[in-house]
Amino acid sequence: MYRIPEQNLDRLFSLTAEKSKLYIPADTAAGTAQFMPWKEGLKLTDAHNTVRSAKDFFFPQTENLVGFRVEGKSIEVIDVREETEDFVVFGVRACDVRSFSILDKVFLADPVDTYYKNRREHGTILSLACNMPEETCFCGTFGIDCAAPGGDVQMWQTDGWFYLEPLTEKGNAYIDTVSSLLEECGGEAAAECRRAIDAVKKKLPLAGLTTEGFGGDKMAELFDSEKWGELAEACLGCGTCTFVCPTCQCYDIRDFNTGHGISRFRCWDSCMYSDFTKMSAGQPRLTQLERFRQRFMHKLVYFPANNDGEFGCVGCGRCLSKCPISMNIVKVMKNLTEGDQ
Amino acid sequence: MNNETLIPQIVTVADVRIDTPDVKTFRVLTPDGKKPFLHKPGQCAMLSVPGVGEAMFSITSSPTNTEYMEFSIKKCGCLTNWLHALEVGQQLTIRGPYGNGFPVDTELKGKDLLFIAGGIGLAPLRSVINYCRHYRDRYGSIDIVYGSRSKDDLVDYQEIISEWCGTEGVNVHLTIDREQEGWDGHVGFVPNYVKELNPDVSKTVLMCGPPIMIKFTLAGLKELGFKETQVYTTMELRMKCGVGKCGRCNIGNKYVCKDGPVFRFDQLDELPDEY
């Protein structure tokens, strides 16, 4: 275990940024928190979590995949891939850290998505324990411990100090690069911080939410539930839940004529959109009910069916605070299993 | 060129065959004149015209054809309209092969096969039919029931008449929806024709066509005593990546691009009815 006083955080950021790119959660002009590239003077936010998840670091909202030069009947493929630089992300919460391992199960499965893999290999994650989880937090439902957030280095902030515990080789390498600012210490303070967080966790409003009634073996039962109509009724199909979700990874691939050639890019997409599955031969999900059901069935049934029971949700609570009609996965889970007990 | 599945290679259209008023068959070769890659019958590939679009098409030619690859494509959307307007020599991009294909070397081996196709639904089956004709001794009898709106809408008509009909142990049963001058064959819809033919229930069925044809043909086959475990079909859903990651072709815990497109009906039964 290592520690650094809070007042030296700027020096830690500065030294980290000398070696690689550094991102920290900071306040935006809109008054919300966002991961931003660190520069002199940028301060760590007081907000609990960022509005956008940390998935951008490995699966950005848009990225160029390949280019084409078209001349007459001929086409030339242009490789536009760039070397990924090493980067460090400071202050990732336990929910987002878990989301990376969920995204890994999609993008690192055969055939490996090399765009994702390159970023994953170059990124070092410094996680931060949640001293004050929010009312919308329910990571515990999915077995995530916000008092021991994981990543390459896990950190606790308590009594004017940041405590750092490296967990991986990348984590050890990071500690080496900033060791001149750190002092070695025992694990008591961090352990005390964990106990304090554990006490808070129990009092969270969603602490009692369980995954009972969900999982890969509930396919037919939940799909055929009569409750989907009512649950989906007010859904605007705006896709906000999918964009703020750290585990939503559906994407689109499109071409853009830059004027100097064709750029083929990929961007986030949403199963909540009507044209997601629409083709000239027909539309398998005709109404918002089917699209709404797909999103929750995927997280609560289909994904666990393919991934040893692991759910496709990390309980970050972003969809709870951002849905314009206040529908969310917690209400869906409670409603679908209501009356089961 | 690389190991990234989303980056395609270039092919040149070497020949365009007009099959029907809205179906053309495109023969493609790499720029140095070779078949772009190996595949199994029933597998698909992503074809694209940069700046227009990219879509999944079943590979119509048989894997036993070592010289080139063919795609029979119906004109029905933005990309396919563009493809129908192109001239020989045009380059396209291709990536693949994708999907599981028909189990020609396992479950289908030694079986009497009944192919049932409607309209452009023959395209994915043509690959299997020609594969089975090539390795004729590996399979039992081969029956092909193929129907279309009219005689002019029968895809691969020349090949059916000149090659398939002449292969020993292969019986071709053609039908069109309505009476037509110059047609003395069967008239009627595919589901009814299959029932009239009353195929032996020992046969293994490979079926592809419009959803309405599949629905009624499957019901008819069940009436005749066929079980869902004997009937295979190949599915079509919107796809972008082709490798089970973009999420579009997800049905239940399956991805049609990777776990399909070929499914047995008992396998489809376990999935939500959303296709």
Summarize this entry quickly.
The complex is a heterodimer of chains A (341) and B (275). Chain A has helices spanning 9-19, 94-107, 114-122, 169-177, 188-203, 219-223, 228-232, 240-244, 288-306, 318-322, 329-337, and strands at residues 2-5, 21-27, 33-37, 62-71, 74-78, 87-92, 123-128, 153-158, 161-166, 183-184, 251-257, 262-268.
How does this model look, in words?
The complex is a heterodimer of chains A (341) and B (275). Chain A has helices at 9-19, 94-107, 114-122, 169-177, 188-203, 219-223, 228-232, 240-244, 288-306, 318-322, 329-337, and strands at 2-5, 21-27, 33-37, 62-71, 74-78, 87-92, 123-128, 153-158, 161-166, 183-184, 251-257, 262-268. With 341 residues, chain A is of the alpha+beta class. Chain A has two domains: 2-62 and 76-203, no CATH class; 216-337, no CATH class. In chain A, a hairpin with a 5-residue loop joins strand 2 (21-27) and strand 3. The N and C termini of chain A lie far apart (45 Å). The mean pLDDT of chain A is 95. Chain B has two domains: 9-98, Translation factors (Elongation Factor Tu (Ef-tu), domain 3); 113-234, 3-Layer(aba) Sandwich (Rossmann fold). Chain B starts with 8 loop residues before the first strand and ends in a 6-residue tail after the last helix. Chain B has six helices and 15 strands. With 275 residues, chain B is α/β, with parallel strands linked by helices. Chain B has helices at residues 78-85, 122-134, 157-164, 190-197, 211-224, 265-269, and strands spanning 9-20, 23-29, 44-49, 53-58, 69-74, 91-98, 113-118, 142-148, 170-176, 186-187, 204-208, 231-234, 250-251, 254-255, 262-264. The chains are: A alpha+beta (341), B alpha/beta (275). Chains A and B meet through strand 4, strand 5, helix 6, strand 11 and strand 12 of A and strand 6 and strand 13 of B.
